[in-house]
Amino acid sequence: MTVARTHMRLSRAPGWRKPEGVVVVARPTRWGNPFDQRALGRAEAVARYTEWITGSGPDVCHDRAGRRYSRSERLAELPTLAGRRLACWCPQGEPCHADVLAALVAERVGRSAAGAGWGGCGVR
Q1: What is the largest CA-CA distance in the chain?
Q2: CB neighbour burial string for 12-47, b if at least 16 within 10 angstroms, e if fewer
Q3: For the segment 31-89, what is each residue's pLDDT rounded down to a tens digit?
Q4: Which strands make up the sheet holding 86-88, listed edge to edge?
Q5: How many domains does the chain have?
Q6: Domain limits at 99?
Q7: Global pTM?
Q8: Is residue 54 part of a domain?
Q9: Which of 59, 113, 115, 117 is within CB 3.0–4.6 Å of 96 for a Cys-Cys bond?
């Protein structure tokens, strides 16, 4: 799977609004990365997310806040991301799980997500 770093970065700047059609994939949404980049570092959190979402480890895991994330549910919902731009808080050009999701959409659904990166998982 080739991962391009093309996600949109969310902003809290005054006047900034999420463009129509953009899907927010940051925590606490169902698309969020359960692996904590503050504890693991961004690259490691994205690497663990990539392993998890592509089939390694348990199907269900929880982030440090206790939110439940299910790989099988996310994979079943991948088609809802087709043709959509994905947005997260990660800086552009940095590893981000949004870019991993976009690559999965392109690979498994056949249409790209437009414009589209176990230890910290808290497995229960």
Answers
A1: 41
A2: eeeeeeeeeebbbbbbeeebbbbbbbeebebebbbb
A3: 999 999 999 999 999 999 999 999 988 999 999 999 999 999 999 999 999 989 999 99
A4: 8-9, 86-88, 23-24
A5: 1
A6: 8-121
A7: 0.81
A8: yes
A9: 117
